[in-house]
Structures are given as C-alpha cells and as structure tokens.
Amino acid sequence: MNYMDILKTYAGRMLKEASYPQTPSSLLADKVDARTHVPLEEEDGHIVSNAAHQQNFVRFLCGLSALTGESFYEERALSLMRYMLDRPMEGGLLRWGGHRYLDLKTLTDRGEKGFVHELKNDYPDYELMFQADPAKAELYIKSFWNAHVYDFDAFEMGRHSMEKPYGVEGIWERRFGDPPALMPRKGLSFRNTGNDLMYAAGKLWEQKEDQGALTWAEHIFGMYQKSRHPKTHLGAYMFSQAEKQMDTDDDTITLSMYGDRAKRQLGPEFGDAALEAWVLRANQEQTIYAMSPQIIAACYSHGSETEKRIVDGTVENMRAFARYAWDGERQVFRPLLADGTDLTGFELKRPGYYGPKGRVIESHRPAGDYLLAWVGMALLTEDEELWKIEHSLEKALGLTDEAGRPNENCACTDSGVLLALIKLCEHGHMQYLPLAEKIAENIVSAYYVDGYFRKKDSTYARLNTIEPLALLKLEALKAGIPGMVADPIYGRSSGCE
Question: Of 49, 165, 299, 479, which is least surrounded by CB within 10 A?
Fold first, then answer.
C-alpha cells in the first residue's frame, strides 16, 4: 500500500491547524484539538509551542519534500528552526525543552523552575539546524555543553542549565580532571541528559569534524562507563551521587538535597548496591540500553579510534544487560540493581523516590526502542551475541516464530519496530519487507483517525508523534532512497501508544 496521499494530507492539515494566524510566526502548537481543528489551548488559555518536542515533525516535513519534490514542507521546517535560532536565550541556548517553551498566542516565554534549559531524550534535528544556520547551530551545541557541564575539570553536570560568567570560546580546550566515579555532587548526572549531550557532540563531530566535540563525548561516555558495577558491568544511570545538604526523617520528601534517593529508600535491604546510579528499573534500563545504543550507532560509526572505543564499550554494556536482565522464557527484562540483584517482585518497604510503600517492582516487556537499539548496533558491529538477543526480541514482539520465519499476521503497531525492520531492509535483509508493510497497515488502522495520527479515544493530536515519519521511511525504502528521510532516535513515548 502507498501512504503518500495520506501523509501529504496529514502534513497539510497539521501545518494549517497547528498554526496561529492571529500572531504571525512560523511556530506551531504542540497539539491540535481534534474536535475544533485549532491549536489546543491549556486551561489558562495559552498555547504550548515547544520546538524541542516537535523534532519528529520537522524531520517528517523535510523527508516529505525529499520524496515529493515539493519544497514547501522543508521550507516551513527551516523557517521554524530559524525562528528559534534567531531568538535564543542569552549565551546561545534555545527557548525550548523540559521546563521552557513559547506561548503561541503571545510568543513569550513560559515554563517553570526559572525557565531553565533542559533536554532529556529529546534529540533535535541537528542536520536541519546546521542547514538553517551553521554558525548558530554550532553555538547552540557548545552552549548546551557549557550550560549543563557546571565544572569541566571536575566534570560536574546536571539536567538544568546554569548561567556562566564566560562564553563558549575554547570550550573543548578546558581541562578534564577525570574525577573518580560516583562522587557526591550537587548536579544530577542523569543519563537521559547525558544522552542528549552525547548526541549533540556527535552531530557537531559529523557536521564540522570537530575533534574537541568527539573528545568530550568520549569523556562523558567514560564517566558513565567507570561508574558501572565493577563485577557485572551493569549501569550506570548516573556517574555521581546526590550530595547530601540537609537532613530529614520524612521518607516522602524525595528532593536530591537530602542525599542519594536509592540509598534512602532501598539501602536498609540492599546495602552498598542501593545507589541511584545502580538502580535499573524500566526507565533507567531504557535510557541506558535502548536509547544510548541508538545514539552511538547514529553518531559514532565513522571508524575513528575514539569512536571504536565508544562502540566497543556500548557492545560490552549490551552484552552485560542481556546476560543479567533478559528472561528469555518469560520474554521480559528483569529490573535489577547493578550488582546483578533481581528486583522482580520486590515490595517497597518505605515510601520514597521509587514509589509508595507497598509498591511492587515489576519486570517489563521489550518494545520497539530495544529492537531498534539491538538492530542498529548488531548491523554496525556484526556481534554474534547482539544478533542472538535481537532474534529473541523479534520472537518476544511476535514478529517471528520459533523457526525465525516472519509472522506476517502479527498485530504489532509499534513504530519503533517498523523503523527497526526498515533498517534491516536497508542493509539487505529484504525478507523483512512484507512484515514491515503489515505493521504499517496496523499502524494506519490503529492510529489514523479523521485525518490525524492519534489514539481513537484521544481528543487531540500531538505534532511530534512518530508514526508519520516511520511510514514515510517505509515509502522512501520502497522507492530505493531510504537515506532521504532522517532517522530519529526512538523512544516509546514518541508514538501514539
């Protein structure tokens, strides 16, 4: 089936309905009201326009121009990106992210926590950014690192930006002191922000052959690597501990200023292994073992010695995770502590960061983000262990039978799975094409509702949903030009599901 007519109709509809003509700009709303066909208003009347959460849509627009020859779509994406680049925060950061966005009605800043800059698993379209304005794109990436690495020598970083009295000049020449792992710090070195920093540095390396960006990417990767458990090589979600600055006896207070939150909640039962860096539940496992490998395969595959070290370390991480976490019989990933302790079924004894007293920690099923990670890294390295787990994931997701034959009657609607199958086809495994086409049909049947991609019971459509981009990738594959549509970094929250 050909989806180009659907995709062009969808693009035109979203560009029209996500715009706000009363305040002329190239910006778009994050959500469209499917009942009124206009930008969705929040309860207080403002309209959220957060370009960081629209990057799948701009990739889709650029790909649509590439496949149709109609330049209008890409021009609109470029116009949106230039609007953001031309109106940065002081120092070069963009007005977007986890705590900051623009009100489409007034084009003024809104947000929380002092309107700080934060990216966590966002992965902007840096190719489009460099196309829009190379100098400002480079400034943004360096400003991102400058604002989130609070101390380059001691390598203290955090998810929230910090104002600096100096700029980005000579940023990569700053000293790296190679500090010890798991030191107490005020900044929280969450890997989801670390992933975005690595992705940004990787794109600067690709676009400008900036050796300094590659060097510092290895530094941050190395900090997480040496913070893994020394025996299992599992982890680490952080390379630091939260520095204890205050005392409290109230376990329901989970602010990091009261110290490492895993130690507080799980320490009495699990001792020294109970560190935030070493708790591997679904969210942490996804960030380390599904999102991070996608970044490495996307940005660090050019063959330099530095990149080889990063790739080899990632393979080692994935092997360790599969060894301890993958339950092939139940086809689930176990929640773990990094010493290998299986947390499946553990009931929390007190309230805290990981939930209320009595909550039971559960295993979790794989999804398209894991399959895409394993496919990407297995294709890059041809590592036999990675291929073995990739085949197990195919079975767990209902894609193949026990003999490894594609299940063309599968009911999967996961766009990450579709993207993974497309990637396999791109690399010559064309036996997966019928299966990819079946999943595309499932996605359209499940989520294409009244001209939108959304859940059938949802009253709004998100601009950033990844389903249109995945379908466009399939059309590009069938046309023999898969590289004309950008690859996203896929997390399961990207889709309609």
Answer: 165
